[in-house]
Amino acid sequence: MTFDNITNGHKCDCLSKTSIPKSEEVYLRKLRKEDLADKDFETHWERGIGVESEGCDDICNYKALSINKTSNEIETLIYEHYKTTFTINPKKGGHCLKFKFKEEAGKVIHAPIENADSHHNFFKSDLFTFDYIEPVDVIKFV
Hints:
18% helix
């Protein structure tokens, strides 16, 4: 598994503390629409957002995708957080993809944020396509 798209263009070590997601782990990611689209798995870096920053924390965050690792115990809390952000900014998406990663998809790192200990960053491998995602469910908030 290679990560040239993650490592090129800077001198930061974004991958040293990452791990390969386990096949049984389930994640959540907000979607703009019910149908999964390329844009739903584009990083800020790929969309040209934040590329002027030179700080390694910023660069690594911009090159990663924001996801939440879920479990039966916390799934409702994550949905409530997503619903709140949808209410504040409906353009951010009213759907949520529940999914697993297949082998060679990439690597994850626990990256808790305020009020979201379940938050992780996902670094896509160079071969990443939607074929590396195993959808479990799509949840609609509205």
